[in-house]
């Protein structure tokens, strides 16, 4: 997540409104185009902006190059999650998943290719979709969010195949364990659940908050971020960021970070993690040694 | 020419005269003596008078001859006169020689005379010297004699005893009467002997006495030390007995000291003191089931200067009676001392509001170890009692701003009994006094003097019936006693309730909002920035929910504009903020590790507490369904 830069307040009402919006904007999701030249970002107002990476990163970049090439209202609610397939940009937020063609996206008045809504049980409030996961081998898209279930959608047909239930509170994040193949989901209830994709059953549950080394009751028990390397898993959020050995389900290293972590990825042998409230991206080797921090 | 020749010739003549003169002389010498020629001797022989005559005659002859020569020369003829002139010249030469001789003689005589005089003088001088020497010696001897005569023997300085006493007292071997009677010298000697003897005896006695004195002094010292060592021992015994006193619950020492000072208290304070001590003891005894260590709920002490109290030699009752007189006196004395009217008045006021130097300090201990300290003062001229209060707690109180006044000394005891604000004086007579010195009301002075609550007066036994103002007021023990228990209980409950309120204020959540208003209000909305003080300081930097709340009022302002022309935007925004705060506090997740109920029970209907990766609370209000959801 990024914070939008603040600008001086102009005079007109529209400009004021836009400035206020920018002041309170939160970018929840981003995705790079398959060609690598564009970056799509989704914010809490439901807008998606497409930036030209090549222009912004080139040596002749000017201020305008850092502005989006196109911005459009994609959803009614915040765009919590976005992924890119080789041709499409999939965005989800307020209970729907929409697909956009990368090829068309820069044109004005672009419309979504399709939109689908997983079958929700409650009708009072549309649950948000917090995480999208692509399983390329099976051509599946897995959605998870406010209704505490993992929905699997076949990308070709667009049908929802199954839903995995088990979480007692809404799901924050998903990760794919390629070898098995399994999906890991972390949620507000504080548990990381592993689901087998073939059998569509829960295989393992790790209740992170119950382990004393990493639990931080004053932060809560929610799991905000997940990353997995098939044998290893890193998760964090309310509890401290911890490296787990999956087969034995034991925490091996607790990373010394105070703030609840919102994002984590494995990169080769390193663990990259960022908290939403600080200006740093911390880089750890997976022995727990903080190699360095990238800082804004 | 002749003169020239005479000049030439004179030296010749003289020489030549000299030789013959000498020749003459030698002739005369040899004629007379034979051995040597002494002109000096010749002088003695000749008569000076005759020589003088001779001289005069010779001078005359010379004058005559010169005149004749002159004559002859003036006559003129050279030859004849020349011989005569020559003749006369020769004669005058002879005369000259005579004159020279006479001159020599005269000189010799003179020399002789001088010599003789000189000799004589010398002799005389010698005699004179001798005379002087002798005189000097005489004088010296005379001095010596007088010295010797003046010599006083030391023995004469001694006051000897009188003769009769001497003969009476002196032992015979000293007085030796037979010898001394006749011989004053011996007598004096004897007397001196006796004196010496006496003195020796006396010196002996003196030494003895001195040594006695030393002994006695030492004894005194020893005794003094002994006595002075007693005092600390007594003290230590007293000290040692204190624990025993405490153990037996009879703090005599302390109590004794207190009662000593209490004697100097003015009557109302004394009443209060007695009643409060009694009540304190009664309370302590009530809890006899408690372990032996006495839990002192109520402790009484007296503060202030006893000396000053003693200095007020007018006992307080008198000052009550003669207030008008004392006022007049004050006026007079102040007029004498200070000229300015304003300062006079000030002084009068100060005098009127004067406090008695002693005050009674009551410490009321509550269950949670917080203590209410009450200091009671007595205003002598106004005959009322005032109280100053102070609350101390076992732990430091962090005073939130809104709770600042809860425990302030000024207001903590206000309205303990209904209507008793403690700002007016309860004594109706005071009003007349105030008029005299220009005090409008006691309210201005309460901060300094303390509050004159009605219950304070009652505790001191002062009863002011409202119908008639009285000058003399009786201090009544029964009045104090009847009010003591209720008042104490009220005070305790007051303190405890204030402390509890204080705690509650401290734990309240406070939302601070900074608003920026644009001149283009309300088309351009006010912008809010929020800071929540509750379990730490939360702003949009560290709490996403605060950010969401700001966004609710800043970005979604169009919903809050209200009916056209939308001037209620600000108030609506503020109201929404209140609602948002409620939602925030109520939906705060409960920390499982901490026991106890939730601080803010959830009253609002929310479908879900958290949504999305940022876990925002449900700030959006759904009208008219009346539940909160997320945007």
UniProtKB/TrEMBL annotation, chain A:
Gene Ontology CC terms, in alphabetical order: THO complex; transcription export complex
GO process annotations (BP): mRNA export from nucleus
PROSITE patterns given in the database record: WD_REPEATS_1 (PS00678), WD_REPEATS_2 (PS50082), WD_REPEATS_REGION (PS50294)
Pfam name, any one: WD40
WD repeats: 164-205
Keywords: Repeat, WD repeat
Keyword flag Repeat: yes
Family of this protein: Belongs to the WD repeat THOC6 family.
Designated name of the protein: THO complex subunit 6
Gene it is expressed from: THOC6
């Amino acid at each position: 997540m990024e914070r939008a830069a603040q600008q001086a307040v102009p005079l007109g009402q529209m400009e004021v409104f836009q400035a206020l919006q920018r002041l309170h904007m939160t970018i929840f999701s981003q995705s790079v185009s398959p060609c690598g030249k564009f970056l799509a970002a989704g914010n809490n107002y439901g807008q998606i902006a497409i930036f030209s990476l090549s222009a912004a990163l080139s040596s002749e970049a000017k201020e305008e190059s850092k502005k989006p090439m196109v911005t459009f209202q994609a959803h009614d609610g915040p765009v919590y999650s976005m992924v890119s397939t080789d041709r499409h940009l999939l965005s989800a937020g307020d209970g729907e998943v929409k697909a956009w063609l990368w090829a068309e996206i820069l044109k004005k008045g672009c419309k979504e290719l399709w939109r689908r809504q997983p079958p929700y049980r409650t009708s009072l409030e549309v649950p948000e979709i917090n995480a999208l996961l692509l399983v390329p081998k099976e051509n599946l898209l897995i959605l998870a969010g406010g209704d505490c279930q993992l929905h699997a959608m076949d990308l070709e047909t667009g049908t929802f195949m199954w839903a995995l239930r088990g979480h007692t509170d809404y799901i924050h994040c998903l990760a794919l364990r390629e070898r098995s193949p399994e999906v890991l989901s972390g949620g507000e209830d504080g548990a990381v659940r592993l689901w087998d994709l073939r059998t569509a059953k829960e295989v393992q549950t790790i209740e992170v908050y119950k382990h004393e080394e990493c639990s931080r009751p004053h932060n809560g028990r929610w799991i905000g971020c997940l990353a997995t390397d098939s044998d290893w898993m890193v998760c964090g959020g309310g509890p401290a960021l911890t490296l787990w050995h999956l087969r034995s389900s034991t925490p091996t290293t607790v990373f010394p970070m105070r703030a609840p972590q919102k994002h984590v990825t494995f990169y080769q042998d390193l663990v990259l993690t960022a908290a939403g409230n600080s200006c740093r991206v911390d880089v750890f080797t997976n022995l727990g040694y903080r190699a360095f921090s990238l800082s804004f | 020419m002749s003169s020239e020749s005479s000049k030439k010739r004179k030296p010749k003549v003289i020489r030549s005269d000299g030789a013959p003169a000498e020749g003459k002389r030698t002739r005369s010498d040899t004629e007379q003596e034979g051995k040597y020629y002494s002109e000096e001797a010749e002088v003695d022989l000749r008569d000076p008078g005759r020589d003088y005559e001779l001289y005069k005659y010779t001078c005359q002859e010379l004058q005559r001859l010169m005149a004749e020569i002159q004559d002859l020369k003036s006559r003129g003829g050279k030859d004849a006169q020349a011989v005569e002139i020559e003749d006369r010249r020769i004669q005058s030469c002879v005369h000259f020689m005579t004159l020279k001789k006479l001159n020599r003689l005269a000189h010799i005589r003179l020399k002789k005379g001088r010599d003789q005089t000189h000799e004589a003088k010398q002799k005389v001088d010698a005699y004179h010297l001798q005379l002087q020497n002798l005189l000097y010696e005489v004088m010296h001897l005379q001095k010596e004699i007088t010295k010797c005569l003046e010599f006083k023997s030391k023995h004469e300085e001694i006051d000897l005893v009188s003769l009769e006493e001497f003969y009476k007292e002196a032992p015979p071997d000293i007085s030796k009467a037979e010898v001394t009677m006749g011989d004053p010298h011996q007598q004096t000697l004897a007397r001196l002997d006796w004196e010496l003897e006496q003195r020796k005896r006396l010196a002996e006695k003196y030494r003895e006495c001195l040594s006695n004195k030393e002994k006695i002094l030492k004894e005194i010292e020893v005794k003094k030390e002994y006595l002075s060592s007693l005092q600390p021992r007594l003290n230590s015994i007293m000290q040692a007995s204190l624990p025993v006193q405490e153990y037996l619950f009879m703090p005599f020492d302390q109590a004794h000291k207190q009662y000593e000072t209490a004697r100097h208290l003015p009557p109302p304070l004394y009443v209060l003191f007695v009643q409060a001590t009694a009540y304190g003891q009664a309370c302590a005894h009530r809890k006899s089931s408690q372990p032996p260590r006495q839990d002192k709920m109520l402790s009484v002490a007296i503060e202030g200067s006893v000396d000053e109290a003693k200095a007020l030699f007018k006992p307080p009752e008198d000052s009550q009676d003669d207030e008008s007189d004392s006022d007049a006196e004050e006026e007079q004395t102040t007029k004498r001392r200070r000229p300015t009217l304003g300062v006079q008045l000030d002084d009068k006021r100060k005098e009127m509001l004067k406090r008695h130097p002693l005050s009674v300090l009551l410490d009321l201990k509550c269950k949670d170890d917080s203590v209410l300290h009450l200091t009671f003062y007595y205003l002598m001229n106004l005959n009322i009692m005032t109280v100053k209060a102070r609350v101390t707690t076992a732990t430091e109180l962090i005073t939130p701003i809104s709770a600042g006044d809860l425990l302030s000394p000024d207001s903590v005891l206000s309205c303990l009994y209904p209507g008793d604000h403690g700002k007016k004086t309860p004594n109706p007579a005071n009003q007349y006094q105030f008029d005299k010195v220009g005090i409008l009301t006691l309210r201005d002075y309460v901060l300094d003097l303390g509050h004159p609550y009605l219950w304070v007066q009652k505790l001191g036994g002062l009863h002011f019936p409202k119908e008639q103002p009285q000058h003399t007021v009786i201090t009544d023990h029964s009045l104090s006693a009847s009010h003591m228990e209720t008042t104490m209980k009220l005070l305790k409950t007051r303190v405890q309730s204030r402390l509890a309120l204080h705690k509650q204020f401290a734990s309240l959540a406070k939302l601070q909002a900074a608003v920026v208003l644009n001149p283009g209000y309300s088309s351009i909305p006010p912008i809010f920035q929020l800071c929540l003080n509750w379990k730490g300081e939360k702003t949009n930097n560290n709490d996403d929910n605060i950010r969401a709340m700001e966004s609710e009022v800043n970005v979604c302002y169009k919903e809050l504009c209200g009916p056209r022309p939308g001037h209620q935007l600000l108030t609506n925004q503020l109201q929404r903020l209140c609602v948002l705060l409620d939602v925030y506090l109520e939906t705060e997740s409960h920390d499982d590790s901490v026991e106890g109920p939730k601080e803010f029970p959830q009253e609002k209907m929310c479908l879900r507490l958290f949504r999305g990766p940022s876990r925002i609370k449900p700030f959006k209000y759904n009208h008219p369904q009346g539940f909160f959801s997320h945007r």
